[in-house]
Amino acid sequence: MERRSPVASRRSLLGVMGAAPFAVAGGVVAGPASAAASRRGRIPKELRPGGQYDRYIAARAKAGEFSGTVLLAHRGKPVLERAYGMADKARKTPNRMDTLFNLGSIGKCFTATALLQLVQRRKVALHEKLGTYLDGFPAEVAANVTVHQLLTHTSGVGRPPQTSGPPNQEEQAWDSVEEVWEGTLKAIRPLPTQFTPGTRYKYSNDGFVVLGAIVAEVSGQDYYDYVRKHVFAPAGMKRTDFYTRPQILAADDIAHSYTTDRKTGERYDFTASERAPFVGLPAGGSYSTAGELLTFVQALREDGKLLDHATVELATSGKTVVPPEEGQDPLLLCSHYGYGFAANIFGGRRLFGHTGGGPGVGDTYNVYPDLDWVSVTLGNYDSTATKPILHLERRLITGG
């Protein structure tokens, strides 16, 4: 079945790769030998097929605690690929390695990459004010907020985050890409900043929507067109795209998002509910596979393919401290945000990447540049299902 994306036609499906069941994992965590083996080019047994990591994920999936795909790659080559659970429970369609998942906020990396391409071309400057590129914002916002602050979540731009409740009736009525784009920017533009720009860190989806609007204005292209042509295509991401809700519901290769009802504790299909958005935005909501996220990382690290090497180093290094979360892993020494990428030190090792969360979305990818590992976990349950997998992954790769 062929579908058309909001901006371009779909490509053919990739090959199908299944998951193999394994026994329940034990509670022993690898020590420093894992990292030492990685440095010598050997793959630790804990990370191989049938190893501790593989068995742990299989056990969680068997217990109904994880649904999605997992990929580990060392020196650019996949070491472990697994798919578990259902992409569409009503149709009894299983997740496969070629299943597309809602990436949530991982999409911020694509927006940042697009924006930094314009910085390299000297079309955008990181120190410049928002008003240099866009109009319609309050004078104090236009004159004080910088591109740097938007990229690092220190601008104060946007609406306070919603803690509960469905979208308002106007948002639920949007049924075109144009309505979502224009309606969201209309809601953001008149607002004052939530705090003095540059004085604190506060994660802002709306700030990245504004960055997407800068990409569109400066490039003279539709945001979706620009990202597909200048990010997805050169990276070799043939099926990654911003799919609309009708396309997702009609597809058999896109995972539905299953979130948990707070009252009943039961999971339900959020994608089929009236709360599901019509299409994603520069802050997140594009769809991809674990394999295509690996190709994005590989393209990002290939000098000049997406960005110059120096710009990648700039983007993926810490710019602002992210306050620790309650219950944070004690091996996480520090957490920072760069330009659209999270940058951390875990177990004495540097890593960068991003997470993606939301109703029925639990994603993460990490790049361990010193050890040459890349991990991708895409889940269609809430992010609480993915976090334990991330914690074990980091320990096994770094030898923490």
Structural class: alpha+beta
Summarize the amount of helix as a percent range.
25-40%
What are the segments in which pLDDT stays under 50 over at least 5 consecutive residues?
1-30
User: What oligomeric assembly is this protein in?
Assistant: single chain
Q: Averaging pLDDT over every residue, what do you get? A: 89
Query: Which geometry do the CA atoms define?
Result: globular
Distance between the termini: 46 Å
* Content of β-strand: 15-25%
How do the SSEs run, as a string of H and E? Answer: HHEEEEEHHHHHHHHEEEHHEEEEEEH
Q: In angstroms, what is the radius of gyration?
A: 20 Å
Order of strands across the biggest sheet? 2-1-14-13-12-11-10-9
Q: Count of DSSP helices?
A: 13
Q: Describe the biggest sheet?
A: 8 strands, antiparallel
Number of distinct beta strands? 14
